[in-house]
Specification:
Layout: E1 2-4, H1 10-21, E2 26-30, H2 33-44, E3 50-54, H3 60-74, E4 79-82, H4 97-125, E5 129-134, H5 147-167, E6 172-179, E7 182-183, H6 193-200, E8 207-208, H7 209-219, E9 231-234, H8 238-241
Parallel strand pairs: 1-2, 1-4, 2-3, 4-5, 5-6, 6-9, 7-8
Helix pairs in contact: 1-2, 1-7, 3-4, 4-5
């Protein structure tokens, strides 16, 4: 079974759908309770049980609820994808402390403590497991007004490397995926988004949620058990040339 945070829509929801189609039960988290419930029903209709756990994915009580519910409902935890994150744009010179610490709390704290909680359960189970963090191309290339966000994404990739030392003896692998521009409900609120990123992406288009979900499923599958501490960039080649969208 799998836990996926920030999965009410977009990349997270697509990952949950793919899991359900592959026969994997899911705990689906989103901060929006209505969105989480609706998404869970949609995922369950595709094959496997999907249970929603609503709440802030960086809240320790919500993290405990997710892992406890997974064990209660399915008896085990096999896969965790820390997908939830927030992007708070802002000029470096005027960036607010409250925004800085909120980005750290959600993007770093949420992933760190969910991985900790799930890994403790995986260790007890003795069968191994997979952890996956959602990074970003902004953890590899500078992006205007995203210093705090990019910093957290780079830190997640280093966290994955450090956890290799901590978790490999328990047969738990840990990796990251780093999407570039991706068409989602949120990004398409910018009417120029797809056109802009199609023009500066070598492959001629931004990623789709399906592109990212396919990578997530591979890195948490049995076929990828010997891959750990790695980061896979999914950006159509953008980081090779890195033109700014501004």
């Amino acid at each position: 079974m799998a836990i996926v945070t920030g999965a009410g829509k977009g990349i997270g929801l697509e990952i949950c759908k793919r899991f359900s189609q592959k026969g994997v039960h899911v705990i689906l988290n989103d901060i929006d309770a209505n969105l989480a419930n609706t998404a869970a029903k949609e995922v369950s209709a595709l094959g496997c049980n999907c249970i929603s756990v609503a709440g802030d994915s960086s809240d320790l009580k919500v993290i405990d609820e997710m892992t406890s519910e997974a064990v209660k409902q399915f008896g085990q935890i096999d896969i965790v994808i820390a997908n939830a994150g927030i992007t708070l744009f802002g000029d470096f010179f005027t960036y607010k402390p409250e925004d800085f610490y909120r980005v750290l709390q959600v993007n770093l704290g949420g992933g760190f403590f969910l991985a900790q909680s799930a890994a403790q359960q995986m260790k007890k189970q003795g069968r191994g497991g997979s952890l996956l963090f959602m990074s970003s191309v902004t953890g590899h290339q500078a992006h205007k007004n995203l210093a705090a966000y990019g910093m957290t994404k780079a830190a997640l990739e280093m966290l994955a490397k450090h956890l290799v030392v901590e978790l490999s003896e328990y047969r738990i692998n840990v990796n990251c995926i780093a999407p570039g521009a991706t068409t989602t409900e949120r990004t398409l609120e910018d009417e120029n988004y797809e056109k802009t990123w199609s023009g500066i992406t070598p492959m001629g288009r931004p990623a789709t949620v399906a592109d990212v979900a396919a990578a997530a499923l591979f890195l948490t599958s049995d076929e990828a058990r010997h891959i750990t501490g790695q980061s896979l960039i999914i950006d159509g080649g953008w980081t090779s040339v890195s033109p700014s969208p501004y």
